[in-house]
Amino acid sequence: MVLALSATAVASISPRDALLIRSVAPVVRDVSSSPPLLANISKLPRTVEVNLTAGLTTLILQPGVNSEVFAYNGHVPGPTLDVREGDRVIVHFKNELPEPTTVHWHGIHLPFESDGSPFHPIKSGESHTYEFTVRPGTAGTYWYHPHPDRRTGFAIGKGLFGAIVVHAAHDPLPASISEKLLILSDNRFLKDGTIDFPDAVSQHGGIDEENGREGPVLFVNGRVMPSISIRSGEVQRWRIINASAGRIFRIALAGQTMTQIGTDGGLFEKPVEVQEVLLTTGERAELLVRGGARGTRTVLQNLPYDRYSPNTRPADWKVTRELLTLETSNAPPAAAVTIPPTLRTIEALDTTRATAVRTVVFGQGIINGKTMDMSRVDVSTHVGATEIWDIVNIVGMDHPFHLHGFQFQVIDRDGVREPYVAWKDMLNIPKHSTARIIVRYDDYPGKWMFHCHILDHEDHGMMGVLEVLK
Ligand code: C2O
Ligand code: CU
Ligand code: CU
């Protein structure tokens, strides 16, 4: 409650005060409810050209204290890359951080050279231009973040993450539905506002390494307990991204159901009514949310979810937390909208056409018994191949699987057939469980990472290299 009040206090600083504060040194964090958009500097049609700089700055993240952060264009979260299917995207990136970095376009199907994986580091002080074309049929919610060798968790924890929204050429949802972007993250601070990264050899550092670093302060778009206003009967489309290092969110709107319409790689074929959504690290969901009775409010909650092994499970894991308030205004009810029963068709990849079946065994911090070696190729294949990956988690902790470059479809989980077809790049593999996915490498030769998206695990080598040959 105290946190919520001080967040409001920051939000209500007048522009003049903000200028005064700015000149004293610390910059007041952007107070709008969603991050700004990256400005398009291109005059060409179907081209989005933007400038993106990663640098050091001081912002108020946890209400009431200044923190030294890493930020994209001075913002945490970074500005949103807003594009359409078919657009040519050109990003002029500058690294003003004191360390090497990359920009990885999580979930986007693009050439290897633009993937921003650890194979293409950008040194401190250097610049690089990323270029790719957004493929038709890939409209959805994605995100960008650094992916330097062994430092991804640190760089994201310091504030480097931003959303990518790819709009469809023809969106099936009525244009009257307004969209909200919700980037979920968490963080942990020392009393003076310093972002807390304990020494790796300390007890807390050891627990972070085991669990994946979590923090008690939960953010939506970099704000603690913000609110969203909705009209009675209004339907809003929420694009939600889990940008945290280790926290798996299990979200629910107290007292009402939601309609899930999409996941990592865009819309489902049909809307699905849900009570809650499990969002593993790096995963996205698109939801339709309805306004309640006039003048009422509800809360977006994070319900307890036990992803941990018993020896390092946090004492407060069972506590339900609040993320944001949804306030239904007193305005007259919104006109009813009709949600189409079919959103699109998705071609199901044919399992009988698979050219290989791979087994990927997740141990604690290792894949198939090994840690990451960038000079090794773990899986070698070729453009055009369709493969089934059998992912087996043999340990007592969840590990979220991620593949670069290619979206996949889930075939089954623990032998239970997936109820619907969807494009995904993130899949939580719960403790002692298995899942089978199918993927087709339909373009772009190169070396692609596959890894656990608990960033501490990834940084400590829970990652492999998939080489797709021409
Ligand atoms: Cu979101 Cu390899 O990363
Ligand atoms: Cu990725
Ligand atoms: Cu893991």
What does this entry look like structurally?
The protein has helices at 2-11, 15-24, 152-157, 203-211, 455-459; strands at residues 47-60, 66-72, 78-84, 88-96, 104-106, 127-133, 140-145, 162-167, 178-187, 217-220, 227-230, 235-242, 249-253, 258-263, 266-274, 277-279, 284-290, 297-302, 321-328, 356-362, 379-382, 386-393, 399-403, 408-413, 416-417, 426-429, 434-440, 446-452, 463-469. The protein is mostly beta strands and 470 residues long. The chain has three domains: 47-167, Immunoglobulin-like (Sandwich), CATH 2.60.40.420; 176-328, Cupredoxins -  blue copper proteins (Immunoglobulin-like); 351-469, Sandwich (Immunoglobulin-like). The strands form six sheets. A six-stranded mixed beta sheet has the order 10-9-12-17-14-15, with no helix packed on it. A hairpin with a 2-residue loop joins strand 14 (258-263) and strand 15. The longest helix is centred in the first third of the chain and has 10 residues, at 2-11. The chain is globular. The N and C termini lie far apart (57 Å). The model is unreliable at 1-32 (pLDDT under 50). It binds CU-O-CU linkage and copper (II) ion (CU) (2 copies). CU-O-CU linkage is lined by residues 104, 106, 145, 147, 282, 402, 404, 449, 451, 453. One copper (II) ion (CU) binds next to strand 5.
